[in-house]
Design goal:
alpha+beta, 2 domains, three-stranded antiparallel β-sheet, about 35% helix, transmembrane helix
């Protein structure tokens, strides 16, 4: 009779069940961060996956494409597509390398241009800078999936949708 009464207690009122629920919730919250950090370590990039938000690289990439970066090669070669992120800028730049030069055979600088742009990117660089340093390259594009980034763009551009998704996830976790 006692075992039946214990089974009838809701899981959230049972201390062991509450602890288990808390552990699963913690795992649900931390798992995406663990996967992200593992991807960062594997690719050598601080941002191994990004979403294209402009049409400057069309037709190679269009707005909403998901791109995958690799940052374990020492040099960026002309023709490759580096992702450059300048200090103080809120967003990175995904443009093709059109020229690479080395100073003293050690330090590399790259000139970039968007495939859909008329001129090179010098006007987009920080003032006084004529090329991109290798340390400003977050990674080189090694692959992409079209349209999958629209989910991220939709969540960033529509706060109501973002709130609804977060609210739904919280309700799911509480159930």
């Amino acid at each position: 009779m006692l075992s039946t009464a214990v089974k009838m207690i809701p899981k959230w009122q049972n201390p062991r069940g509450t602890f288990t629920l808390l552990l699963w919730s913690l795992l649900l919250i931390t798992f995406p961060f663990m996967i992200w950090k593992a991807l960062c370590a594997f690719t050598g990039s601080s941002h191994p996956i990004m979403v294209v938000i402009s049409e400057s690289m069309a037709p190679a990439f269009t707005r909403g494409d998901l791109i995958f970066l690799w940052n374990r090669q020492p040099w960026v070669h002309a023709g490759e597509i580096p992702v450059c992120w300048f200090p103080g800028k809120p967003l990175p730049m995904v443009h093709r390398a059109i020229k690479s030069v080395w100073l003293d055979g050690k330090e590399q600088f790259t000139l970039t241009k968007g495939d859909n742009n008329d001129g090179d990117d010098v006007p987009l660089y920080p003032p006084g800078q004529l090329m991109v340093g290798r340390d400003e390259v977050v990674g080189v594009v090694k692959g992409y999936l079209p349209y999958l980034g629209w989910l991220s763009i939709g969540l960033q551009e529509n706060p109501l949708v973002t709130g609804s998704v977060i609210g739904g996830l919280l309700l799911l976790a509480a159930a």
